[in-house]
Amino acid sequence: MCGIVGIIGKSAREAILNGLTKLEYRGYDSAGIYLNDLQGKQYLTKTVGRIQNLKDKMTSDEQGQVGIGHTRWATHGKPTIANAHPQFDETGRFYLVHNGVIENYQDIKDKYLQDTTFESNTDTEVVVQLISKLAREQKLTAFAALKASLKLIKGSYALLLIDNTQPDHIYVAKNKSPLMLGLGDGFNVIASDALSVLDQTKTFVDLHDGEVADITKDNYQLETIAGNKVTRKPYQLNIDPDAASKGTYEFYMLKEIAEQPSVLRHLIQYYLTEDGTPKLAPEIVDALAQADKFYIFAAGTSYHAGLVGKMLLEKYAGIPTEVDFASEAGYHFPMMSKHPFLIFLSQSGETADSRVVLQEAIKRNLPSLTLTNVPGSTLAREATYALSLEAGPEIAVASTKAYIAQVATQAVLAKAVGEKLLKQEARNFNLANDLSLAAEGIEQVLTQQKKIEQLTDQIIIPSRNAFYIGRGIDYPVALEAALKLKEVSYIQTEGFAAAELKHGTISLVEKGTPVVALINDPVTADLMRGNIQEVIARGAQVIIIAKQQLAKATDDLVLPELNYYLSPLITVVVAQLIAYYASRDKGLDVDKPRNLAKSVTVE
Ligand code: F6R
User: What residues are annotated to the active site?
Assistant: First the structure.
């Protein structure tokens, strides 16, 4: 989604452009930068499309010692230059970049800004015009006008403001959108994602919701909107900036798919002792073990990982588990059991839909745990407990290794809780061994990339639509496989519980329709073969992916044996590769599919 980078106290142009480039993966459709050289010169450049367009448009004299930059993912108003940020007020004094959505922008416009001339259709312009108006009419400093404006504004925001009558300050504010301050020697940076400024500093201070800051090159003053001073200790973020580089891979997505065996091996070390016992904080296991039901909330790929998690938790912990779309549960909160425990799955830890549910859970005093790949993210901070997915930075918009880590980490939870509750199934669950077999299994799949690419080119790419079908544990994988393929290749794909197809949707199957059939479930393997025949009889082009013990000589891909409940760890990798090749071989931008954003911070 939108990205923000600001810097004060050092040559700002390169730092901001580099930072914005690192945020490209989040998805955006226009970009802009404001620079001020503190000697009376200022520059504003905005473009539609890629950051490269911005770089091409800027002249060499556009330099500054302070600046703010933004990548915009359009919500209010089309992607145009006028709607791109920085937005500015009608007097040309204030420049502002903003992530989030101002919910009451129309009310503010009607009530306070009737005489103001607007140049854009954005909700953001309302904020900068309001700041300007309050500063003028009430003779407020920029910082005071910002705070006064925020008292009137409802919505989510991470925003950076520069007042060109006093350009040696950046004023910032945060509510429900990520923003962090990075501390340098003689300079400071502000960003919506630490990854974008890791080449500048590794020392960060988080801003919390409802806080504002006045930042100069050597200092920062943090306070609440009401004006109460806040002190918070800086921390070191030890992420290797190389982990976020593409290396020799053509696309991040392929790099991240290939990293999955090492993600699993790392998780074995991180979450299991040498004898295979889960290494989780006892209070987390105790809290989970007291529950009579688990409720998993998530969106998209994380939701699909939750569906696998349900099977793991029910099998090994013996606790009934419900999985809900966060976007639905936020406004139609599910009926809870007597002792519920809520689990939030989120790669980014910032998904607005999940946050609405978490806020409700906090209100109701319900215990919660967030599993996220971004420790320190909003959902991690606000839940009762948080665990890290340890997958390393995931840059491609399509989630791959975070899904693998979500499944594996839920398996750790299932084993830990099951052992605590003295379940024999959990004691017999040789998770360390199974995860290590899964890592080897993924490596085996990776050796079959050529074959997967051929099948994709021959059967999937020529079609406008496709199906994945599976039963049992393969059903949630079929859902994830379909999401992966459609999001990066734009081929309309649906995942189905195999037998459901014949209850209606089979009418869409015609000559050449690709149907990918997944067979890991011994109980329904024969029935799956029957469902495959049904679609073949209607002209479908079938790709059969079966685990060794259930495979036939004519099957297209044979997968190594693995614990049934962990089999998604291997099967999904075939689907990820099909999606990757479908996108790449169609000549698409694999890492940045159209209309999508990496972290979805609006509802
Ligand atoms: C698809 C994908 C999305 C996310 C979803 C939730 O590849 O990445 O479906 O899974 O937007 O995001 P997180 O996990 O960050 O809450």
Answer: 2, 598
